[in-house]
Amino acid sequence: MKETAATDGRTRNARLRRIEGRHNALVKELRQAFSRAELTSDGYCAIEGFRILEEAIRSGLRFRAVFFSESAVPRAEKLLSQLGAQVETLLLADKLFSSAVPSDAPQGVAALARWKELSREDVLAKSPAGPILVIAGVQDPGNLGTILRSAEAFGAGGVLLGEGTVSPYNPKVVRASAGSVFRVPLARTKLSESLGRMKDHGLRLVGTASHKGTPLDQAKMAGPLAIFVGSEGSGLPRDLIKEMNDVVAIPQVPEVESLNVGVAASIVLYEVMRQKQ
């Protein structure tokens, strides 16, 4: 396998090993990780884009390998200098890179990255820092990414992802979160098995609804909270609503059926932060 340095001074901080074939083990692993939108067998996730890679580096993630397309070499120097010599960096022809990365407009950089997996108990232990956001069946990756970005912006302690929720390793979730997915404590869990543990941690369970509930501006949103957000179509399941200490609704005109779940979660988190301050 041929190894080459991308010359002319643009990548003097590291050497790029050229990969010629689509059957290279690392290229296959990258392609499969993107296709499955899940972790690889040894715990790595596929991410892509210059901004996302910079956020991953800033967040202290470890990398199995970083891949550059030939056309992206002129932009690569900054990232290469941040990665350091210990990270394997590979150079792919544009066509080969595009075959491994599903984006409609790939930016020419992707990586297999690893960040620490947490358990439900790890996340619940963060509750003194801020509310725990509990996601029940949000399936749109853009919505989940937005929620994670707002969770970081408004000081959530962590996020629990219930059954039927899109994978946090989906590349569209990662992109929509603008890197927050790397830093917000999150874990997957079975919600029916987690309610008791939330109560054991002293959390008040607050559900969200589109219209029926305590108006958000009148609700008490202080103290240790677990805030439940339901799916885009049907909201929170009835069996979960029955377990809530309170249900809140964002005041809106009756002609609107409901807010986008990412927008609604963001507004609720902002109100929690406002009342805390």
Give the number of DSSP strands: 12
Shape: elongated
Q: What is the number of domains?
A: 2
N- to C-terminal separation?
A: 59 Å
N-to-C series of helices and strands: EHEHEHEHEHEHEHEHEEEHEH
Task: Give the CATH H-level superfamily of the largest domain.
Answer: SPOUT methyltransferase, trefoil knot domain
**Spans of at least 5 consecutive residues with low confidence:** 1-14
CATH architecture assignment of the largest domain: 3-Layer(aba) Sandwich
Helix-residue proportion = 25-40%
Polypeptide structure, described:
By secondary structure, the protein is α/β, with parallel strands linked by helices. The chain folds into 2 domains: 17-114, 2-Layer Sandwich (60s Ribosomal Protein L30, Chain: A), CATH 3.30.1330; 120-276, SPOUT methyltransferase, trefoil knot domain (Alpha/beta knot, 3-Layer(aba) Sandwich), CATH 3.40.1280.10. Helix content is 32%, strand content 19%. It has 10 helices and 12 strands. Strands 8-7-6-11-9-12-10 form a 7-stranded parallel beta sheet. Strand 7, helix 7 (171-176) and strand 8 form a beta-alpha-beta unit. The longest helix has 16 residues, at 261-276. The protein is elongated and about 60 Å long.
